[in-house]
Specification:
Helix content is 8%, strand content 31%. The strands form 2 sheets. Strands 1, 2, 3, 4, 7, 8, 9, 10 and 11 form a 9-stranded mixed beta sheet that branches. It has a two-stranded antiparallel ribbon with strand order 5-6. A hairpin with a 2-residue loop joins strand 5 and strand 6. The two termini are 12 Å apart.
Length: 190
């Protein structure tokens, strides 16, 4: 049993400690000193933000990342356009997306259109706003986490993602319990 931490990963940060280029922002840039054996459990791409779990507990990594364990990840996506609930019916059956040129059949997912904008920290930089194109917030729950999966799922039904925020991972939920009030870039031990 190792140490585990929760982070609200900022937009533009890589979910790793090593820079691949001098301009990259990584976990090493946080004002927090992690033990050397702590690594991210799963990843969020640089364009995504929100809840990231870091741990030195290898069994936790397997428990959360193995899709057969039915651990869910919840995201809030700000999408371009005005989707209806019917636009996401295909997600419940599992849709096909391309990953690295190969077709991947996604596990069933649940998506719902939100009636109000969620209470989230402002993104830096803010998303691009187009005067004549509406945007909508959608919640999606998935059981896996392939590279840019949520973005590809929404694009496949005609609603490109403008902002993507992970708000829960397994039993950890943003703005509940130990995570309540977690600021962008803040790390807490759990």
């Amino acid at each position: 049993m190792g140490k585990s931490y929760i982070l609200y990963k900022p937009y533009g940060m890589l979910s790793q400690f090593t820079k691949e280029a001098a301009h990259h922002m990584t976990l090493a840039d946080l004002s927090f000193s992690f033990d050397k054996d702590v690594y991210p459990v799963g990843r969020l791409d640089a364009d995504s933000e929100g809840l990231l779990l870091l741990s030195s507990d290898k069994s936790l990594n397997h428990k959360i990342l193995h899709p057969s364990k039915k651990e869910t990840k919840t995201y809030l996506a700000q999408v371009e356009g005005s989707p209806s609930q019917q636009d996401f019916n295909a997600f419940s059956k599992g849709i096909s997306i391309k990953i690295k040129g190969k077709t991947h059949q996604c596990l069933p997912a649940k998506a719902r259109v939100l009636s109000d904008s969620p209470d989230l920290p402002e993104r830096n930089p803010p998303i691009r706003v187009r005067k004549h194109v509406p945007d909508t917030w959608v919640e999606i729950k998935i059981q896996e986490g392939k590279n840019r999966q949520v973005r590809k799922m929404f694009a496949s039904v005609g609603f490109p993602v403008l902002r993507l925020v992970r708000v829960s991972l397994s039993k950890w939920h943003y703005n509940q319990g130990a995570l309540k009030g977690l600021a962008v870039g803040e790390v807490r031990e759990v």
